[in-house]
Amino acid sequence: MIREFTVSADDFRTYSRFAFLRLSNRKAKGVRSFAVNFVVWFVVAIVFFTIFQFDDFSLSKFHWPSGLAMAFPFVIFVFAYINNLKEIERKSMPNEDGLMLGKRKIEFNESGITDSNRFGVSVYKWEALQGVEQYQGNVYLSLDTMLAQIFPASSFESSVDRESFVEYINTCMINHSNPA
């Protein structure tokens, strides 16, 4: 089987976000994460409501300028953090029409996966493939924690084509897995 397609910067951004979500959710998945968040915020709310119940505490006695002056550095830190994240994302974007982005030709055969682009050829044995994942119509063949072959949604003619591709890859992985 041979697939030819183009990986765009948007496809890479989508994969980066997916990889980050996958890595951050390894420890806390779905319902458990929601339950922990709910309990933490519930405790925080109880603490604040308890503080407001003290007789000697009154919002009219609270010195708002001091409170705002204390909150100001934290607001600045939050904006700086968000800005730094965007800058890191911008600087970590691969080159257009380079090794990761641009036109690709991927061939699947008995020995593994051959990825060709204008700079060269990479060959991955089937044993290197850790899994097949789908996200927003894209298919990712995971080779390592952050490395994957990106198959954008635009590389498939239909959802049936995408599902048959995933089934083919899963079958190849099963047929070529190393018995432990």
Derived structural class: alpha+beta
Q: What characteristic shape results from the CA principal axes?
A: elongated
In which range does the helix fraction lie?
40-55%
CATH fold category name of the largest domain: PH-domain like
Into which percentage range does the β-strand content fall?
15-25%
For the largest sheet, list the strands in their spatial order: 1-2-3-4
Largest sheet: 4 strands, antiparallel
Folded structure, characterized:
The protein is an alpha+beta fold and 180 residues long. The protein has 2 domains: 2-7 and 97-175, Roll (PH-domain like); 17-91, no CATH class. It is built from 4 helices and 7 strands. A 4-stranded antiparallel beta sheet has the order 1-2-3-4. A hairpin with a 2-residue loop joins strand 2 (102-109) and strand 3. The longest helix has 28 residues, at 64-91. The protein is elongated, with a radius of gyration of 24 Å. The two termini are 28 Å apart. 12% of the residues are buried.
What is this entry, summarized?
This protein has two domains: 2-7 and 97-175, PH-domain like (Roll); 17-91, no CATH class. It is 47% helix and 22% strand.
List the helices and strands and how they pair.
Blueprint (H helix, E strand, L loop, with lengths): L1 E6 L1 H16 L5 H24 L10 H28 L10 E8 L2 E6 L2 E6 L5 E5 L2 E5 L5 E4 L7 H17 L5
Organism: Simiduia curdlanivorans
Protein name: YcxB family protein
Keywords: Membrane, Transmembrane, Transmembrane helix
Which features would summarize this protein structure in a list?
four-stranded antiparallel β-sheet; membrane; PH-domain like; transmembrane helix; elongated; transmembrane; YcxB family protein; 180 residues; 2 domains; alpha+beta; single chain; three-stranded antiparallel β-sheet; 4 helices
